[in-house]
Amino acid sequence: MPSSRISALCRAALVSGLVSAGLVPLAHAARYHRLTDSPNGTYRVDPNHSLAWFTIGHAGVAVVVGRFDKMSGTYTFDSAAPSRDTVAIRIAASSIDTDFPMRDHDLRGPDFFNVREFPTITFDSTRFMPQGARAGLLYGRLTLHGVTRAVVFHVREIGAGEVAALPKPWGGYLSGYEATTTIRRSAFGMAAYAGMIANRVHLHVNIEGVRTAR
Question: Which of 44, 95, 152, 188 is most buried as measured by Cβ atoms within 10 A of its Cβ?
């Protein structure tokens, strides 16, 4: 079983144990609701509750889903001054996982991500344009396979607020977002097997961050 799945099972067992032990009240576990406090502040990305994943067409008949299991980064949000908003994300290219080891080996190789030469995928924002109270367009530069291109993510805030029920290092003042965009893999120098694999890749990033400064 992949280590990422073992970790997920361990985290689930931990939460279950905390509930059973009374450290996380059962009432908190039973009543889920979105927190709507202010998301303003500077945050550290929580790698255990964040995920970068993608979908891509396969053989003209289906869609393949993959993910990256190692991500880090920081972000700052200021509702009164969106020009100050910044996002910096780092992803280990070798952590790609499509639930098929043979395919993952090929994806790490020179025909695709070439992780030995280009070990890190990065995104650095250049500006944020709000679209309503809880959404916006995040402009920035994505570096993938050693190629840097301008991209625009559609961002939606999920929630923000104090989460006291979770133990350290997961609890505290948290905020979360989901972001999506579409790229062409050929624009990043990955054009192998064009007749079998689609050129358009739909990227999804789910972020949960722990506030480190107001």
Answer: 188
As a whole number of angstroms, the distance between CA 191 and CA 185 comes to: 7
Q: What domains, with CATH codes, occur in the chain?
A: 1-32 (no CATH), 34-213 (2.40.128.110)
User: 99 is written with which tokens?
Assistant: 């639930």
**pLDDT value, residue 25:** 55
Query: Is the omega angle on the peptide bond into residue 169 within 30 degrees of 0, that is, cis?
Result: yes
Distance in angstroms (rounded) separating the CA atoms of residues 147 and 48: 28
Question: Is 143's pLDDT higher than 80?
Answer: yes
Pairing relationship of beta strands 41-45 and 197-213 according to DSSP bridges: antiparallel
Residue 51 has which token pair?
């995920």
Distance CA 17, CA 11 (A): 10
What is the SS3 assignment for 47? helix
**Which position has the token pair 């009374």?**
22
Alpha-carbon distance values, 21 to 16, 18, 81 (Å): 9, 5, 44
